[in-house]
Amino acid sequence: MFIDSHCHLDFPDLAAREDEILATMAANGVAQALCISVRLEDFPRVLGLAERHANLWATVGVHPDNADCHEPDEAELVRLANHPRVVGIGETGLDYYWNKDEPEWQRTRFRTHIRAARACGKPLVVHTRNAAADTLRLMREEGAGEIGGVMHCFTESWEVAEGALEMGFHISFSGIVTFRNAKALKEVAKRVPLDRLLIETDAPYLAPVPHRGKTNEPGWVVHVAEEIARLRDEPLERIERATTDNFFRLFRHAQP
């Protein structure tokens, strides 16, 4: 079975097609998916998906791009994360692409999420864009390696991957790795140790080839696995088994 380790099924493009999306997952051998929180205001919808469906799990967190939303403190994140259907903290991290002034509030928020993850014993889901050096620095300063997590939708260099791997983190690849022009990323995908590899869709974004340009969905994560298997010259079944085992080892509160 395959697992989509990162998707946003509460987003409008997907929420209206809940039953159809779950059916496509089943048809494509995608047994489970992790639904990611990006705003606490929307967390009840994310949690609701995980409560309705035994094959969906949830995280709790606030995306670094969301400046105009409720700012959680550590205690609030820990309280919400203690729900049995919540298996991780995030999506959190740093994103300087839209915030070129490198705002201090993002760094403060990221530190809060790392501390909450350590307090509740659930791993981090980390987003980084145009902020790799600061992301790794804060992870080291806050002891993120003690709880672990995943660098989601990875698009950085091998050196950044190596820094995260040294802290015990996993590396997750999205549909971007299937794009023809993602040559550097394809090389990184070849080098990540098999026992640290995860796959995701980041649905509704970043649909993989052959669905590029469409609204993405968890059932298409198999195309990410197929491309990684091709790049590494390994059987698809090996990538399938490894990424599934890695998911349950990392998100240890989730159940097969």
Question: How would you portray this structure in words?
Answer:
This protein has 256 residues and is of the alpha/beta class. The protein has one domain (2-250): TIM Barrel, CATH 3.20.20. The protein is built from 10 helices and 8 strands. β5, α6 and β6 form a beta-alpha-beta unit. The protein starts with a strand and ends in a 6-residue tail after the last helix.
Taken from the alpha-carbon principal axes, the silhouette is globular
Strand order of the largest sheet: 1-2-3-4-5-6-7-8
- Percent helix: 40-55%
CATH superfamily: Metal-dependent hydrolases
What is the CATH topology?
Answer: TIM Barrel
Q: For the terminal residues, how far apart are their CA atoms?
A: 10 Å
This entry's quaternary arrangement is single chain
- Give the number of helices: 10
Radius of gyration: 17 Å
- Along the chain, the helix and strand elements come as EHHEHEHEHEHEHEHEHH
Strand fraction band? 15-25%
Tell me the major beta sheet. Answer: 8 strands, parallel
Low-confidence stretches: none
Beta strands, count: 8
Secondary-structure content class: alpha/beta
Kindly report the average pLDDT value. 97
Tell me the count of domains: 1
